[in-house]
Amino acid sequence: MPLSSSVIKNTKVIAQGKKEIITESNIEEKQQSLEEIKDIIKNNGNENIDKFDEIAKAIIEKAKSEAEDIRVKAINDAETMKNEAHNKGYEEGKQQGYNDAYNETIGKSKAEADNIMSNAENNASNLVNSAKIQYEKYLLDKQVNIKELALFIAKQILKREVKEEQGIDDMIYDAVSTAKNSALIIIKCSSLHYNALSDAVELWKKQIPLKGEIFVIEDNFIENDSAIIEKDNGKIELSISIGLEKIKEELMN
């Protein structure tokens, strides 16, 4: 769906090899689809992710401006409609006044003018109400786009992080902290994260008041974006996918 967005003039998109980066500057209006913005972010490492707040703000501000234009135009159109109806009623009454007896015509023309004005007011009222609905829907659509973009960026960040050796350390640390009273904690992870987690565990032993033993085991049946923590009273399954689902629930509610 086309997303009428003010993208950072930063979106003076500069080619560097096959990369496009958003450069810092002021804001210019640019028509871009949500998918186009996603593609720019997806193909550019972390450069544009840092600019998400600015991009989101620019999109919302532009949406508010366009929605306000819709509202103002509707009000102006309604006023024009009323004036035209008034003039039409007056002219018709005036013309009939020349052709028929004045006293007879004035009552008839007034009734016709009142009828025209009444219809015009109803039409104008409907126009304004319709514009209000369009205004609210326009902003709502933009908010949905922003949420979708935020979820997409969160996914890109997490996907990049898990490719690093220490990419799931924070996720594991939080889970280990909740299981600190267990007599035994076993962390199972892929070979990508094994060395980094083994080093991290030695540090955590000093930071977290663990009551039992903690070990890291390499398990290549586990995906790089996941880990399993086994403890004496059960296990905890961790996954970036699960985290993204929780983020999605928070954003879309």
TrEMBL record:
Gene Ontology terms describing biological process: protein transport
Entry GO CC: cytosol
UniProtKB keywords: Coiled coil, Protein transport, Transport
Domain of life: Bacteria
Coiled-coil stretches noted in the UniProt entry, renumbered to this chain: 27-84
Name of the protein described by the UniProt record: Flagellar biosynthesis/type III secretory pathway protein
